[in-house]
Amino acid sequence: MSDSEFENSAFFRRKILEKDQLDPLRVNLYSGSSDAVIKNISEANSVQEVFDQIDRFGGCLTAERLSQAVVTLWDLQKVYGRYGFDCSMITKYEINNFLEKILSHPSFEKIIVSLESVCEDLNNSSLSSMLLYLSKLGVSNHSPIIEKLLLLCIERIDTFNLSALSRLSVYLRDQGIRAYFLQSKLLVLILNRLDGCLDVDEFHMMTICLNSTKRLVTKSILEKYLALVQRKMHEGFFETCDPRITLKVIKLLTYQEWPSLRRFVQPLMLCLGKNFHALTVVQVMDLSNYFQNYLEPIDIFHKICQYSVNAIEEAKISGGRPDILCLAPFTSLKMRPYFERLIVEQLDQKDFYEYIMVLFKALRYFKTSNRKLCDAFWIKSMNSVEEELKSSSHSFLGMKEIARRKVYQRYMYFNNNLGGTYRNFALERTMSNLLLDDLKTTVGLLPSKVANMAAFIISYSSREGIPELVYEKVILCGPQFSMYDTLTISRGIQISLALNRKNPQRTLMQQITTICRMLDAKTEEYLKAATTLNHVTNLVRGYLNRRGSPRTLTFDRLISAIIPYLHELNSRHIRDICLCFINTLYLAPDILEAMSEYIVKNKEHILADTMEVMLTCFYNVGYTPQSVEPLLAACTHTFLHTLLTAVPCSTAKFLILASKVA
Known about the structure:
By secondary structure, this protein is an all-alpha fold. The protein has helices at 4-7, 10-17, 36-42, 47-56, 63-83, 92-104, 106-118, 124-137, 144-156, 162-172, 180-193, 200-212, 219-234, 237-240, 243-253, 265-274, 281-294, 298-318, 336-346, 356-366, 371-391, 399-417, 425-439, 447-459, 468-477, 483-499, 506-529, 533-545, 553-560, 571-584, 589-601, 608-621, 628-644, 651-661. Keywords: Kinase, Transferase.
């Protein structure tokens, strides 16, 4: 087998020769070995060179040689994935196709058969590596080699070091309930190591382990890890370490079930700001996603904006890349024509399916008025999902819904974002029929699936009423809906009411009223169990989405439930709460004061847009905070800084609001 499909690119060939400096453990498992075959395999620059070594020494393939061959194959595949989008000639489709050729190659099959007979000879590090990398290369979890490696891991896990534990944890992360036993044992081993003095690599591996098993992490483990993070912060560790480590810590601390830990995220993001020049494109994308969850600190926002400008200028010279579309929310609206051209180019690419989310974000941000482009994008998205489902060699319960949700849920956000001015009736009709058929299968017995699919069907049902099957499913599954299921259904009701505001039929309104009563009861139930500010704000948002009245005891209880969690405030929460008060004209002095104090205390890290929303809220509800002068001083300082950094802001509106609040 040849790598000729990649060798025609001098750029890509050069990148292959550059070994991955960020992860040396994956390049050579036996760096101290004197075995010439292991050395040749580890230094191979192509898949064919690896297979040549295997064929040449087929009679004496040791566990070390075979495991190094697997690691090198993974290393080469990883390099393809890492640099594939840097070279416009190589698409993700071609990379996946290349991987399939590796798996079906006779030499690879020989590696698997030989490794199965000698895997007991592997050391712990090699054992965990084989389990992880064979799985990532595409070997089935039910294959004899994987099952044998897993049994060996169970026997030896007590003797694993952090390197082996981190690889094992990454493998177990995607194995569902079958991995619970090993994950539980792994966490005990992690707890015993948290008290030690960890170097950079050990801390990195520890964070990987906890990220992979966070659903099972106990309070005692979390407290010890937080103490370790705080100690590292005081030592200045995060200002000089590899940005990947800091990003992994941020990912762990932003887990939705641990909202109280988010106070550590802002200083960690500021540490990344000091080391921004070392970030890769993918890392900047990850950082931008974390920023969108908090909308602070402002320094990171400015750095991402500047990075986006530089990346786009570079792309204009070297050729457009679909990955830079992720940076669209951090660019000027003047870039709309350029991004529209990029989207048009991507519509004809083989790997379009992989970029649906990226293209959606760009289209939604720029609110393009190009209806032909929007039509082409949504029809292409729907067709690519159906083609992906047809070409899939395996299936599982709910697979079709998960794949289609990539389109239909985003369409609901897209349509809702534009206030219903854009609709693609062909997509609405076709997708509704597909989801209706899916609801008739066993998938229709799963409450979360019912909520997702029913929300879309309710959104775009005719004014005559919701299909009886969907209505009955929602009422039947209602008692089992989760908090997020109620929010999803509420969004569907919001869109349906917006699209049928003129002369809705009696049947439709009766159905929606019944569903709303059921959701109100679930809201009261979940309000008693709410443990975070996110939980409460989601319940408020769902209640208002379905046009719940702000003059009810339910709404009073929802707003009152915010007060115990005001210590969890961030810019995202402030914007959500302010928009709620603007729409309802509800006056809650305790909450308004807390938001004002938060802005004053964190003025150096708050966006001007957030301050503008808060001033609008104060003006609309007629409230003047006790600390109005410090608040206006903070807002003015941020506004002037925003002008100097040339970040878009509503200048006149800001000044008018500030003067009226004053």
